[in-house]
Amino acid sequence: MADIRLNLVIKVSPEKVYDAITTRKGIESWWCKQTTAKPEKGFVNVFVFGQFRNEMKITELSHKRVAWDCINSIEEWTGTKVSFDLEERDGNTLLRFTHGDWKSATDLFASCNYDWAKFLRSLKSFCETGEGEPR
Fold first, then answer.
1. Do residues 111 and 28 touch, judged by C-beta distance below 8 A?
2. Rounded to an integer, what distance in angstroms lies between the CA atom of residue 93 and that of residue 23?
3. Most distant CA pair in the chain: distance in Å?
4. Straight-line distance from the first to the last Cα atom of the chain, in angstroms, rounded to the nearest whole number
5. Going from the N-terminus, what domains does the chain have, and what CATH number goes with each?
6. Coil, strand or helix: which one is 42?
7. Which residues pair with 101 in a beta bridge?
8. Contacts 24+ apart (CB under 8 A), 48-51
9. Which in 79, 119, 127, 130 has the greatest CB count within 10 A?
10. For 107-135, how does the pLDDT look when each residue is reduced to its tens digit (9 = 90+)?
11. Cα dist from 31 to 35, 88, 117, whole Å
């Protein structure tokens, strides 16, 4: 199994980051412009990128951890898990992001590692300035 792991400090409270990663309006502002999402454990969020549709079931939902299981997507994503761990540090948020349980470190895995880094930069920008770069 292979995992994408990224950490970053976002200069806002964990509550603001939580809203950005759990609400439709938040997610559409930094990651995916075509989102169906609700901050409710068990809900299946849907993210559409052109012809690609990702369905993520919310398995954990707290102000310290948000986790999704990918239940329907491209073959390499299905069965993977995404998590956002939030820790308050001096008025800022330390975000520990994981997209884990990949079957192997393929070329797509490497490409997604790069893409997640760009999207987390977008999340940071959205939280700090109100301007993200969703796709």
1. no
2. 18
3. 42
4. 28
5. 2-129 (3.30.530.20)
6. coil
7. none
8. 49/135
9. 127
10. 999 999 999 999 999 999 999 999 999 99
11. 9, 22, 11
